[in-house]
Amino acid sequence: MSTTERKSLPGPATRPRARDLVGYSAGSLGMGVWVTVPGLLLLYFMTHTLGVSPFLAGLTLLLPKVLDAIVHPWFGSVSDRQARRDGHRRRLLRWGLLLAIAWIGLFSVPAGFSGWSAALWVGGFYILGNVLYACFQVPYLTTPSDLKIGYHERTRVFMYRMLLLTVGLLGAGVAAPALVASGGRDDYARMSVLLAGVLVLTGVVAIVFIRRLADHSGFRIPDGDHAHSVIDDLRITWRDRDFRALTLSYLFTGITTHIFLAAVPFYTEYTFDDERLTAVFMGAFLVPAAVAGPIWKKVSERAGKQRCLLICQVVFVFGSLALWPGEAMGVLPTLAVIVVLGSAFAGLQLFAFSLIPDIVAAAEARGTARAGAYTGVWTATEATGTAIGPYVYSAVLAAGGFVSTTEGRAVAQSDSAILALLIGVTVVPAALMAVAVAFQRRFALDRAPAR
């Protein structure tokens, strides 16, 4: 019997070591690059540099994500089969290291490509990148569910993960706009090459420490001696009422937060007439998120994850509406609102993700422990929200008559376009987050005593 197999046998939970959690969480630095930069810059890149219309640009970001709805659950089932056979999930993780290739291609659009041809180029590499990202993301996020640890320890794992993810979001969210400030194609290509190294290095470090975590804290082998079909896995996860409520809530949460990311460059340019504020506003959003994570963990130990998650969602509703005055309110008050939104964002991520291992633990008690299947559906939902957010915003821009342009050309936007831009970053996110609150209120698992 292998070391990993022996560790998977029932036994007392072993608290993960801090150094192993930091190493594991390093993978989130690279994930932060992929999550942030396309959501923040791709729509703007296509409409302002590549001459792609807002509607076509939105479709280019949305359609590749349709594949994610199939790929992520499938990878979840595959990783469960690999875990049953090998005692680990590292095969898929290694494939995910190739994401750097698709990342470079995504922003290195040939000079002769614009409009439809540019959209096809970006869409093709976006599909490839999403598949490779899923190879890494699904088994990576299954790790906390795989470990033999308790209720609060699962929150602790995700606190470390969210802390480094926020650092990755912050670094990418501030560095990427600064690197492409002039808006030229060469700047976007150079930025992609510089950040590709981060994707590879952090991925390798994470794989090493995932193994160390499993060796130290134990590894839960998914249930079943035979391979389950993807359909079976989907049926089991969707029958789980708490998982269904949390997933639907997070779908609307993800749409809302990615509308915000996609809207920031437009908001700063057309509301404040200062593109340099993009990096400033992203910093104001993400720096508090890095600080708030440990604070939210402490609060949740008294109030519970569910209650804290609802508080964060409600704060995001009112914070989004507070952005309406824009320049009339001034830069500093707007920064203050964004700081509050960033603090809420930290809780949205921490509590939603840390509830997934709790759901898996409850499923294990019922005899249906398939952590990969749950994570695959969860990451598919996350990817869908990532895509729908920019698409919704691009659709609002298109409805308002927003006109796209190419590198080096300025276009005056109509009053209706400016109004649509503002509605898209305030009223629309607030309404969508309110839907998330409605679904989250149906979640009942966290009302049980902490395990």
UniProtKB/TrEMBL annotation:
Q: Which domain of life is it from?
A: Bacteria
> Transmembrane ranges?
21-46, 52-71, 92-113, 119-141, 162-182, 188-210, 245-267, 279-296, 308-325, 331-356, 417-439
One Pfam family this sequence matches? MFS_2
Residues of the Major facilitator superfamily (MFS) profile domain: 242-451
Protein keywords: Membrane, Transmembrane, Transmembrane helix
Extract the PANTHER family matched here: MAJOR FACILITATOR SUPERFAMILY (MFS) PROFILE DOMAIN-CONTAINING PROTEIN, MAJOR FACILITATOR SUPERFAMILY DOMAIN-CONTAINING PROTEIN
Q: What is this protein called?
A: MFS transporter
Q: Which organism is it from?
A: Actinomadura livida
